[in-house]
Design goal:
Elements (H helix, E strand, L loop, with lengths): L4 E5 L3 E5 L6 H17 L4 E6 L3 E6 L6 H9 L2 H4 L5 E13 L2 H9 L11 H8 L5 H9 L3 E6 L6 E5 L23 E5 L2 E4 L9 E5 L26 E6 L2 H13 L5 E8 H6 L1 H11 L3
Parallel strand pairs: 5-11
Antiparallel strand pairs: 1-2, 2-4, 3-4, 5-10, 5-12, 6-7, 6-11, 7-9, 8-9, 8-10
Length: 291
């Protein structure tokens, strides 16, 4: 196992870089480290934050010295390789109105910041991924599950990693220069990572559509946000569901009435099983949504 690289951020944070490349293996190693540190309940550690291929530990230097913390974290590395690569998690079906009017209006305002000012984000994404149409891209984007590898950047925003063989993963570069506007609940992608913009704001990911389902709400009005204001957690699995404008309007009305119910099912995910049979694993995960 390659050694984790450590660095300090000020006098309260220890950053651990598991890998320079994102992979499910790196994610599981980082999650195993975070799980073990939580289990140990080390005095002085105040917060543990997993990310795509790294994790951050916040600590109180008045309780635990930085060098002692570093040695403590380094001391669990040998145990991580033997940690089970299995998650008891959940799969969530997220409806998406692809090629919607709101992201279309926004992307047209910012074509001067895009690699290809003469096409839409969907047209560009389809072309550079070797697909012959926007419909083919939407089918590929929504055809396999996506893994939530971290939540952050802004409150509740998930980073999602497509669960297919690496040579089949779709990738798109971010805008040449970031936009100053992105509609709330935009579904987009930058590099290998998909996302849902939890709030309206600046952004640089290619925009593919919008979901009617809130994923962040400090007032916690929606049934799926009763437990916490941010819906997504690292380890969640997402299945995009293409919907029509009529379906979007019905879902939005249900959201506004507080009666919308997300389709969420518990699942067991094994990294070893996925690596041995990605298609079979994905099929079983998606079947769980309608069990």
């Amino acid at each position: 196992m390659s050694k984790i690289r450590y660095s300090f951020g000020g006098d309260e944070h220890l950053f651990a870089e598991v890998s320079e490349d994102m992979s499910l293996e790196s994610f599981f190693l980082g999650m195993a480290a975070c799980t073990e540190l939580r289990r140990m309940q080390v005095p002085g550690i105040t917060e543990i934050c997993p990310a795509n291929a790294s994790f951050l530990v916040r600590y109180d230097p008045d309780v635990i010295a930085s060098e002692k913390l570093l040695k403590t974290v380094q001391g669990i590395e040998d145990r991580l390789a033997q940690a089970p690569k299995v998650l008891n998690t959940r799969i969530v079906e997220i409806p998406v109105l692809y090629n919607d009017p709101w992201t279309h209006e926004t992307l047209m305002r910012f074509r001067d910041r895009h690699q290809d000012p003469n096409s839409t984000d969907l047209e560009y994404a389809a072309r550079i991924n070797g697909l012959d149409s926007v419909d083919a891209f939407i089918a590929a984007h929504s055809g396999s599950p996506w893994f939530v590898s971290m939540v952050g950047f802004v409150a509740g925003l998930p980073f999602l990693y497509q669960m297919v063989e690496r040579d089949k993963q779709m990738q798109v570069p971010k805008y040449v220069r970031p936009r100053t506007d992105t509609p709330k609940l935009t579904v987009g992608q930058g590099g290998c990572f998909g996302c849902v913009y939890s709030v309206r704001g600046a952004g640089g990911y290619q925009m593919f559509g919008v979901t009617p389902v809130p994923i962040f709400d400090p007032e916690q009005k929606q049934p799926h946000l009763k437990d916490f204001m941010c819906f997504f957690k690292p380890g969640d699995i997402v299945k995009w569901k293409p919907i029509t404008r009529e379906q979007y309007d019905r879902d939005l009305a249900a959201v506004e009435a507080g009666t919308y119910r997300l389709n969420v099912k518990p699942v067991r995910f094994s990294l070893d099983e996925f690596q041995a049979d990605p298609n079979g694993t994905n099929q079983r995960l998606m079947e769980a949504l309608h069990a």
